[in-house]
Amino acid sequence: MNNKKLVLENGMVFEGEGFGANKEKLAEIVFNTSVVGYQEILSDPSYCGQMVCMTYPLIGNYGLTDEDYESKNVFMSGFIVHEYNDIPSNFRFTRTLGEVMEEAGAVGISGVDTREIVRLIRDNGSMKALICDIDKPYEECMKMIHEYQYPKNQVPTVSTKKVWYSRTPNPQYTVVCVDCGVKLNIIRKLNQAGCNVVVVPYNTTKEEILRYKPDGLFLSNGPGDPENVTPVINLVKEMKGVVPILGICLGHQMIGLAYGAKTYKMKFGHRGGNHPVKNLDTDKVEITSQNHSFAIDIKSLEGTGLRLTHINLLDNEAEGMMDDINGVIAVQYHPESAAGPEDSEYIFNRFMDLMKKGGASNAKKNRY
Ligand SMILES: NC(=O)CC[C@H](N)C(=O)O
Question: ipTM score here?
Answer without folding.
Answer: 0.97
